[in-house]
Design brief:
Layout: H1 3-41, E1 46-54, E2 57-62, E3 65-71, E4 74-75, H2 90-101, E5 105-109, E6 123-129, H3 135-141, E7 146-147, H4 156-168, H5 173-176, E8 180-181, E9 187-188
Parallel strand pairs: 3-6
Antiparallel strand pairs: 1-2, 1-5, 2-3, 4-7, 5-6, 8-9
């Protein structure tokens, strides 16, 4: 074989390998898009809300069992707590939570600094939309919830900063209610009648 023929053959082999790699990449990227799309629609870690209880609590069907989920690190004004009047901005917070979740699935994430369940046996979780939106944080940011400083959790500093921002911008309950500071650094909302 001549040197020219060997060079042409080497070039053809090189082009063939590049085309093969390109073809495999295109096939895999199409498959990856399909898998991403399928997972976002059928995410095994995503759940449909079966009941909106209030602004910081929902129920989901998890493996055929109804679980009540309490959002970590926040507290919305009360709407259903026994022996407690409906609090200012409670109905608005409940409606906002229902609006932003709607019929979308939610992803539940635990926090290594908190217990798995609270004293009422509710699962304590960060609640995310499948697009990555942290609903807990969004509720504080938009003035529908208080940052809850009574137990440690990893996003405490972020939630505290979101609350300070909502206060300074007079968002939501910070404009429409008269929150009372607690001895432990948190707030509670006033009742609707006051």
């Amino acid at each position: 074989m001549s040197l020219v023929f060997k060079r042409r053959l080497a070039r053809l082999m090189y082009i063939f390998v590049l085309l093969a790699i390109l073809l495999v990449s295109l096939i895999l990227s199409g498959r990856a898009r399909y898998l991403t799309s399928t997972l976002s629609q059928n995410n095994p870690g995503a759940y449909t809300v079966s009941r909106f209880i209030d602004g910081d609590t929902v129920s989901v069907s998890m493996n055929g069992h109804i679980e009540t989920i309490r959002f970590i690190g926040i507290d919305t004004p009360e709407t259903h707590k026994p022996n407690t009047p409906v609090q200012c901005y409670g109905p608005e917070a409940a409606a906002y939570t229902k609006q932003i979740i709607g019929h979308q699935k939610i992803v539940l994430v635990s926090d290594p600094l908190t217990t798995d369940r609270d004293r009422y046996d509710r699962l304590l979780r960060y609640v995310y939309l499948t697009d990555g939106t942290n609903i807990n944080q969004k509720l504080v940011r938009e003035g529908y919830a208080f940052y809850y400083p009574y137990f440690p959790f990893t996003k405490a500093v972020d939630f505290s900063m979101e609350e300070e921002s909502a206060i300074s911008q007079h968002k939501g309950l910070w404009q429409h209610c008269k929150p009372t500071p607690t001895d432990s650094g948190g707030y509670i909302s006033n009742s609707l009648s006051s």
